[in-house]
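To close the chapter, one final illustration. This time we ask the reader to focus less on the individual chains and more on the assembly as a whole: which components sit near each other, and how the overall shape emerges from the parts.
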Amino acid sequence: MLLRSIGRLGWVLIAIGTPSAAFAQHRWLPPDHAPTEAELERARVLYEEGQRIEAAEPARALELFEQSFLLSGAWKPLFAIGLALHDLARCVEARDAMTQLLDTHDDVEPEYAQRALTLRDECSERIAIMSLEGLPDRPEITVDGVPYLDSGARPLAIEVDPGEHALEVRWLDADPFVWSGVMGPGSRVPIAVSLSLREGPSETSLAESPVFWTLVGTGVLAVAAGAVAIVLAVLALEPNSDQVIPLCSDC
Amino acid sequence: VQRLLIGCVLACGCGETAVLELTLDLPAAGDEREFVYVQARSGTRLFEEVWSDESSFSGIALGPTSQRTDVSIVAAPEQLDSLMRVKLRFCRAARCDHPLDPSGLSEQWIEIERAFYDGERTDLTIAVLAVPTPCANISCVRAGLRVIDKCEVRGCTEDEAGPFCSGDRHLCE
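The assembled structure is written out below.
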């Protein structure tokens, strides 16, 4: 969570608009101060551990590279981030990592810079685009369950990795627009978004519905039973100390 | 209330939990190191990583003399089999958020082979005789790492002194 975290927290989304398209650019944050010797050493250990496990645990290696970059701001972990994302078939992020590397580090060894260029171009060609047409103002958009920042460009171009994707658009109290499909490498798929405001049921009809009250009653009973089970479970193994530390796996 | 909430969160998601009652024999406050902050992670987290902290643990104030303090570490079922890593961070502020705290590494690292068993309460005492000398680098901190065998963790017996294993198998296994 959290650093599945620093990985997730380590980059920010910046919306960049063009007349016909908008895309989210990922950026990995370098440290906000000159790294200390201890931080650089820690970054080196994380980088080397990431390299060691990269073949067997690429997602975990990516986390370590992201933390290494957050500590050091050095080009090597950023290159490793891009490479790991490429190997994980996360082309959009891989392209952005390589772009950031080439834009912000002029100390990259030529061999690695050339490789970063190649990987960036390769990824750019594979990125697919959902082209959303007919969007209203200020819709709530989610792609694969993740909120997407609407730049306001119309049609809205959303970059995704090749593969299966799900799109949902919500707007006011209209029924959500839902789309899912497979995006081929480099494809551009136009999607006509259709949203119409619905008429809600009257309060009277809902209050008179037996189905509604059956659901409410069942819900209340389920919550009560759950609460009893939780209290019993807690009382069975309550910590002795007032100072309680939950064991954390991913923070 | 805090304990109830933590228990609820763990109990809601996953049924049984496990608790390690950790007793800390702590030294007197050292030069500018007046607090101990305890962090615990399952074995997937390396000591060298930055451990973010969202817990409400408020830190332990060190006094003019040595002291004994108890903390409870609560694990969820999916964390039981893993080894556990603990950092005792000796800091200037209770939550180690003083601007100067990150620069001088005064930490005791502890690795416990296994501390948790499904639905069981276990106990462990760790003594730190003196505030660790601040290290300039990570290698120095790692050199002080303490590794604790699972058989040193008391549990599933009334016996205070042990043994807590039968052969290689812990009594709670």
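Residues 73 and 138 of chain B are 25 Å apart (CA to CA). Chain B touches chain A through 58 residues (CB under 8 Å). With these observations in hand, you are ready for the problems at the end of the chapter.
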